[in-house]
Amino acid sequence: MIFTFGPNDSWYYNDGKRSIWRNVDTDLHNYLKNDSRFTTEKIRSLVIFPSGGFFLTTLDGAYAWERLPKALEDDISKNSAMTNVQRVEIDGHNPPTYLCRTVQPEQMLQSDVSRKCLEVAVGNYFNEGIREIVLGYDSAFVIFGKTGRFNWSVAPDWSWWNETMKRPGVKTAYLSPYKPSRAFVEFSNGTWAGFFPQEWHDIIKKETGACTVC
User: Rounded to an integer, what distance in angstroms lies between the CA atom of residue 187 and that of residue 12?
Assistant: First the structure.
């Protein structure tokens, strides 16, 4: 599954069979709705920037972007290529922050990622390897290792998150870069849990019939 939190309560949901989105930029809406390169089953990742711009990637190497932050664009152009980008993470509380995972070469380009996140990544996953680093609002993060372990740092006293991440079968998670306590967690049995407005839950359940654990 993929879940993307954007600015101004925009969002995107993808369960591999169907996609749902609300309040996204017109250009992104048109790519998702009308461009055959970006059908649901092909999408690999999507990030929505504070400007409403975005970077959209697919499993077969297609990509689309609008209003990419210049520092990120320059970093990708210097060290890799747009076709090699697999995922971009940002922190909307600190706009200079980004983490960009590429292949050929396999690397993570980063700017202003918190010291704590980098220390946990190196100290805990140097030998195991990292499957994914997810960034959130105000230096929040989750790191997933290749063997299934994960560590996180999120808003303090967020009981929903702490309880959800202790459930068995956590597969992946997405944090909002725009709100301190919004998240989407996918489980290995195909269910999911979300901490976001009830209206979003209702839309997803109505359009997909998706089973949730929340």
Answer: 18
pLDDT digits (tens, 9 = 90+) for 128-163: 899 999 999 999 999 999 998 999 999 888 999 999
Tell me, rounded to whole angstroms, the distance of Cα 152 from its chain centroid.
15
State if pTM tops 0.85: yes
In angstroms, the Cα distances linking 178 to 9, 65, 76 are 9, 20, 23
